[in-house]
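Q: What would this chain look like folded?
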Amino acid sequence: MRPMVKASKSLATRPASGASMASTPQLSTAGMALTRRPASVLAALALLSGCAATVAPPPPASLQTPAAWRGTVGPLATAPAPERQWWQSFGDPALSALVETALAHNGDLRVARARVAEYRARVGVAGAAQRPAVSVDSAPTRVRQLAYNGVPYVTNVYQAEFQASYEIDVWGRLAAQTAAAAAGYRAEQANADAAALAVAASVASGYLNLRGLDAQLELTEATLKLREQSRALAQRQFEVGYSSRLEWLQAQAEYQAAAEQVPQLKRQIFELENALSILSGGNPGAVARGAALAELNPPPVPAGLPSDLLRRRPDIARAERNLVALNASLAATRDQLLPSFKLTAVGGVQSLKLHDFLNAPTALWHLTGLVAAPLFDGGRVQAQTDAAAAQRDQAVYAYENAVRAAFAETENGLGAVRRLREQALENDARRATAAETLRIAHNRYRNGYASYLEELDAQRTLYSADVGRLQLRTRILVASVDLYRAMGGGWAP
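A: My prediction, written as structure tokens:
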């Protein structure tokens, strides 16, 4: 059985009759014993502390941090850690302005920041429970009722009352609740930072893809003009009988194939502009351009060991702070079975006449000390503790999953930059071969050693290599953005 001890003290002064009265504070026998024997108090508290609910141990750690990354990207791997405004490293003012606009006006970020404000207020709510609470109540009353002889009469009662209460946090339960709220607030801050990093990376990737599409459209329109010239030449040669109708139709087909790419690229550019405008917190519309794709260079690849990543990514910090919050909530839930110690003081004034209420009211007060503990709750607190422990275990697993995902994303980012660079070198060699093939095919056709179909085929091969070159350059730039995001984007706790 858990004890419930209640000690009360009441004193009335200046009664309505005008006589003076005083009463000696009355303490219960248990309360007097506690005041006389401090050693017994400590022993009792130690005994009561064992009444807390049983907490299951946390799961064993299964996370292993690798000593190094599986691969590097060459000499740039020794570059410094990423800057907080890493997007400025691309050297495009239009890109920097677009990212800054998105960070200021993105709808998802505004929601995340509002959640931070909410959790900041929750810390104040939790901390208020550790401080005294004071309230005032004024209730003038007019009552018409019957006397003992059946004659009705009217009574006025004027009163005002002040009440103060304070809970002594003997076991630290209230402090644990405040710590849980503070950790939750810090987790929401990290969540907002993670959202900002994601928005910045999405805007940068979208803009780079947009510049890649612009370059492809420019290439396709230039190729279309060449196809138009080739079609006109093939038509003239067919009309004078120098070539067959097959060559003229083939030139016409190549022209139409190039023309088909133009509206497709324009549609993709149109949709990507709208997406970037929405991501930046505006309405669908055009996006300002800056440097051309050929002028954009990927920033240095940030360095660092896998263990450094644990301090660089806001999502990992969020998972860690959530775990801290749930641990504190678990401690507060566990201690619900322990006794609570509360002090309540109530004081006020009362009178039957307004004049007396304003000038010489009767003062009334009482002071109450309460020690209360649950005797039987049907296992509710233990079940709540088990649920809180399960939530703590979920947070442990979520933290480990976040770290593993961060390792994988960084490994993939490093590997993507490295392999795309290798692929770009092979593409340069393929394009050089295609250009030489076109030169030879053109000379052979001009000297009458080959048909025009060979030159058309060489033109198609070179166009494919040029498109691949632009796409690879875009992918390298986007892979650099992904790597910066994977490595935390210069975030600092």
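Residues 413 and 482 are 6 Å apart (CA to CA).
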